[in-house]
Each structure stands twice: as structure tokens, then as C-alpha cells.
Amino acid sequence: MGFVASGVTACSAGKASNSGKTSTSSAKKTSSVKKVVQKTATLAGQTFTTKQGTFLITENHVTASATKNKQVLILKYTFTNTGKSQLVPSDCWYKYVKATQTVNGKPKTLEQGSLPFSTSATNDDNLENASVSEIKPNHHIKAEGSWQLVKNGAPVKVSFYDTHHQLIGTRQYSTD
Predict the structure, then answer these.
(1) Using CA atoms, how far apart are residues 137 and 91, in angstroms rounded to an integer?
(2) Which of 27, 73, 119, 168 is most buried, with most CB under 10 Å away?
(3) In percent, how much of the chain has pLDDT > 90?
(4) Is the Cβ–Cβ distance between 65 and 150 less than 8 Å?
(5) 110 by DSSP, 3-state: which?
């Protein structure tokens, strides 16, 4: 949970008492006020919901990458635009969803994947193309997101964030 802290400083000076004695004191009081920033997204099961729309993850698999000897992890999803304007699903997906692999004990951020060129369109090609199509409010589309693996066979941790960059949740996917 993210917090925003702000400081408050107060100074006071004593006043003359009834006995005619003057007392002067100076005290600084610092308090920290923590404000909880409300999360703007949720992750329940395989459903990731943002203010712009809902991503229902329907499948995951590993396939060949456009980069020689590399593979990509693909997460297929159905996106429903719950916003008030047209938007591109992949813009929201890659803004709020990040993937990492642990290699030699260190997490490595994965780059967006790309599929190998093919003379015939595969189902993955069609879903990748759909992810960059504009979707009207209250419409849905089947699409996919993909990341190029740093290490073939190592599991991938996918992290879901909200608009305030607060971690909403994670899921782990096998790449075997």
C-alpha cells in the first residue's frame, strides 16, 4: 500500500501568568500524517480491472520469438472497455502489467515480445493485431500481451499495478 507523508510543524510561546511572572517556552511539535491512496485497480483470480477496462486472462503459453533462439510468454485476454472513450487495449496492458524473470538470483524486467514473421496469419498474430485496435466504450475484444523471455524455461512473475503505480497483485506463469 502506498502512503503519502506530510509534515506539520507548530510553534508556541507562553504568555504572562496571573502572578506577574513571564514564562517563555518554545516547543516544536512534528507529526506525520499518513494518507492512504485508494487503489484504482483490482486483481481477482484471472480478472484484472482498471478504470479504463477489464482484462480477463483466458490462456497462457510460450511460443517462438522474432528473436533467434528466444521465446515469448503470451497471455491471451478478453478486454472490455468500461471507460467513456475509445482506447487501445495494449496501451493499458503494458502501462499496468509488467513481467520479470529471475536470472542468477536477480529479477530482470522483460521487454514486450514480438512474434516471428509468417506468411500466414496465426491465431497469435491475429490476437496481437487486435490488441492495438481502438475499442469503443462498452465493447470487448479478444487480444494478447507478450514478453520476450530472458531465459527460456524460467518462470515469469507478472505484476499488476494501478494508476498510482501501487502493486495490486502478482501471478506466476511457467515457461516450460
Answers:
(1) 15
(2) 73
(3) 73
(4) no
(5) coil
Instruction: Decide if 97 contacts 52 (C-beta within 8 A).
Output: no
Q: Hey, what's the cell of 133?
A: 485496435
Tell me: the pLDDT tens digits for 84-116? Answer: 999 999 999 999 999 999 999 999 999 999 998
Q: Cα(129)–Cα(124) distance, rounded to whole angstroms?
A: 9
* Residue 65 CA to its chain's centroid (Å): 23
Query: What is d(CA 103, CA 89) in angstroms, rounded to the nearest whole number?
Result: 30
Q: What is the mean pLDDT of residues 123-129?
A: 93
Rounded to whole angstroms, the Cα distance separating 146 from 167 reads: 20
Query: Nearest to residue 172, comparing CAs of 78, 66, 57?
Result: 57
CB within 8 Å of 120: residues ≥ 6 apart: none
Sign of CA dihedral 146, 147, 152, 153: negative
**Would you call 56 helix, strand, or coil by DSSP?**
strand
For the cut 50, the answer to whether the pLDDT of residue 165 exceeds it is yes
Q: How far apart are CA 36 and CA 143, in angstroms?
A: 34
Output the nine-digit C-alpha cell for 84: 467513456
For residue 90, the SS3 value is helix
